[in-house]
Each structure stands twice: as structure tokens, then as C-alpha cells.
Amino acid sequence: MPRRVVVSGIGVLCAVGRNREEFTCSLRQGRCGVSRIDNVERYDLRFENGAEVKNFEPTDYLDPKQADMMDRFAQFALIAAREAVAQSGIEWTPELRDTTAIVTGSCVGGKSTENQGFWDVYKVGRNRVHPMTIPKTMANAGASCISLEFGITGPAFTISTACASSAHAIGQAFTMVRSGMCDVAITGGSEATFSHGILKAWEAMRVVSPTVCRPFSRDRNGMILGEGAAMLVIETLEHALARGARPLAEIVGFGMSSDAHHVTQPCAEGAAKAMALALRDAALAPEQIGYVNAHGTGTSVNDCTETHALHLAFGDHARKLAVSSTKAMHGHTLGAAGAIEMAATILGATNGFLPPTIHFNEPDPDCDLDYIPNHARGADIEFALSNSFAFGGLNAVLALRFL
Predict the structure, then answer these.
(1) Closest to 257 in 3D by CA, of 245, 269, 240, 248
(2) Other Cβ atoms closer than 10 A to 285
(3) Are 287 and 317 in contact, with CB atoms under 8 Å apart?
(4) pTM to 2 decimals?
(5) Is a pLDDT exceeding 90 seen at residue 119?
């Protein structure tokens, strides 16, 4: 019989919170973390706003030598993992270190380091780059740093599936714990997107808003890039209770699909299939879901497509769902999005509220659901979904139960 899997610790670092408590407070207040980008020159960009972790000093968390060996995205991952482990109360033994898994997600990895290396070679004309450029740029650096920090020698790897990376990572870790491959896993995602080359690439796609992100609002005009990390400690319910831990939520299902439709254009049928598979995996009826944390990027096509997908997956119940996108607050954190948004779902529900979709100005006829506009709402739900949909047509949906 499949084992029950619970979340016992959460760590978050993003534009609207340096830790779990700050993040929760920002979600409740509907605080926007979008402002002018500080870490990158904006002189030739068509947009100037982003959701950065402002005034982040790595040496506030890491010793200088350690910080110098890690890209910003890996620093975020390790800091969030520390917080999650501390909340979980895990006490490491040799046996537990040997069997715990680490599964992380990242879309672009150490692009800040890579961008600096290209600048040094091609622009400045230097004949060498930072000697740790390769280990700093590898997408698995976050997972490896977490392994080194806690001495974990069990399975450790990184999944890169664009904006669904950390949702896929959590789903894989959930599957491993549920199946008996391991009793405990540290899982989530991290991303640090603010380097000049990446911003120019996103500019070329013409999907970034020049102002703010307005998911599902009729006047939405694009996404806002963000950065950060969220990490979860997950374990079997039996393992958590045996050591006296208090579970925060239960992961009850995971669904994933591929659109086979288009590299960048979303497909309602593919997204709906992933939601239906998550429900089936959890043995839930659509009517049991009370809230969906939407992918909700704020682009014209994504939001109406996701709305259509919700109608396909939930039928008549879609109009009874509470739906919101927290990307309007913390930005689109790419490979970290699924983890940050799952953390938002858990932290909101366990603190008695559903996070809002801020910057919602006017209804769109093509987006006709309840998007919790602008202000948080009291939560009285047992089950929720967290949606992540990625370029390449890759979809990942996690189902949660609140204990």
C-alpha cells in the first residue's frame, strides 16, 4: 500500500520574503515585490522592472570562501534548505544521511556566473575566467551544495524542465518517498535570472511587462521575471509522527503531461490532462478541490488558456473554485516557480488564508473564474492543486491535503 507523504519543513527566499515568516506576511498583505532592477545595467532593455531579492549579501548567510564558490541560485537553494531543515526538526544520523534524497529543480542554473565569464572573455578580453566557473554554472549545484551542507549521501539530482522544473522535482521526490525508495527528501527549486544576457533573451520574446504582472486581468500585458528559492522537507507520515514532528500538509497526488503542441504556446488540453492525472493519483473528485494556485503568468495567451484548462478539468465545479496567481507578488521565478507557489499554497492555507491575485483591475470575458482579486481571503479548504506549465509543453500538477 502506498505510504502517506507529508511536508514537515519549508524554507523560502524571494522578492517578498527573506524567510518563511516574511513570505507568509507578504502573501497575506498582497505585497508586491516588483521594482526597478538593480543588479543589472538596464541601459538597453525595453523593460526595467523585476522581482529581485534586494540587498542580498551572501556573506550574511555563508562564509566568504563558501559564497565565492557558489552562484547566486545555489546560494538561494542552500539558504532555503537550511530553513526547511530547521523547521522540520530533523536530527541527522548516519543511516538517515545515507537514505535521504535531494531532488531540486532549476531552469537555467548558474547563468549569472556564465554571463560574467562571457563578458570577461568577449567584452573585456581577459584570457581566463573564474576557476570555479564550471561547478558554479552547473544546474545541479544547488543539490550538491545541500548534500555537502548536511552530509547527505542518498540520491541527489536536479530536474530541468523550464518553468515546471521544481514542480517536477517535488513530484519526483514525492514518488520516491511514497514508493519506499527513501523515507525523507529535501526538494524544491531555485533560480537567479538577473543577468544581462538572460534579460536580453527574454526581451526578444516580447512577453515581459513594462510595468507589473496582472494575472487574469483584462489589462494584463506580460510577465515579470523573479528570482529566489523554496525548499521543502518531505517524509512519510509514519516517520514524521515517530519523531514527534508536526506535519504542515500532505502531498496526495502528482500529475504530469506533455502537450506535443508547440514550444512556447500553451495548450489547454495538456494542462487539463495533468490536473486530471493529479486528481486521479490522489483518488479525489474534482468537487473536493477548494483552491488552485494557478500558473498564471500574466500573458494574454497563458491566462485564458489556463482558464480553459480549468473548465476542462473541473467542469461545472470550476466556477466554485478559488483560483489565484502569486506571480504578481514574487514574479515568475522560472525553475523555482513550482516550489515557491507550492510553499505559498501551504503557508496560506495553514495560516488561515488564500493568497490573492494582486493588480487585478477588471474582469476578462475569457478569464471567467474566481481569481481572489487583490485581497487575501479566509481559507476553509481541505484539498488544493498547484499548477506549473512550462515552455516545451511540459505540465506538472501537485495535489495537497491540509491536515
Answers:
(1) 269
(2) 10
(3) yes
(4) 0.97
(5) no
Considering 163, 182, 304, 367, which one is annotated as catalytic?
163
**Whole-number Å distance between alpha carbons of 3 and 62:** 36
For residues 97 and 339, give the distance between their C-alpha atoms in angstroms, rounded to a whole number: 23
Mean pLDDT of the residues in the chain: 96
Judge contact between 341 and 191, C-beta under 8 A: no
CA atoms of 1 and 9, how far apart (whole Å): 25
311 is known as an active-site residue = no
Dist CA 35 CA 118 (whole Å): 27
308 a catalytic residue: no
Calpha distance 108→163 (Å, rounded): 10
User: pLDDT at position 179, please?
Assistant: 97
d(CA 226, CA 211): 14
* pLDDT at site 374: 98
Q: How many Cα atoms within 13 Å fall on the side-chain side of residue 191?
A: 34
Q: Is 239 a catalytic residue?
A: no
Q: Rounded to whole angstroms, how far apart are CA atoms 301 and 278?
A: 24
pLDDT of residue 141: 97
The identity of residue 300, as a single letter, is S
Q: Which residues are registered as beta bridge partners of 127?
A: none
pLDDT at residue 1 tops 90: no
As to burial, measured by CB atoms within 10 angstroms (0-12 exposed, 13-18 middle, 19+ buried), residue 106 is: buried
Report the pLDDT value the prediction gives residue 120, as an integer from 0 to 100: 86
Domains and CATH numbers, the chain: 5-242 (3.40.47.10), 250-401 (3.40.47.10)
Q: Give phi and psi for 224, each to the nearest 5.
A: -125, 130
Check: CB of residue 396 under 8 Å from CB of residue 167: yes
Q: What percent of the chain has pLDDT over 70?
A: 100
Smallest CA-to-CA distance from 221 within 14, 361, 387, 356 is with 361
Active-site position among 168, 330, 332, 359: 332
Catalytic residue among 196, 239, 295, 308: 295
Helix (H) or strand (E) holding 394: strand 394-401
CB 62 within 8 A of CB 78: yes
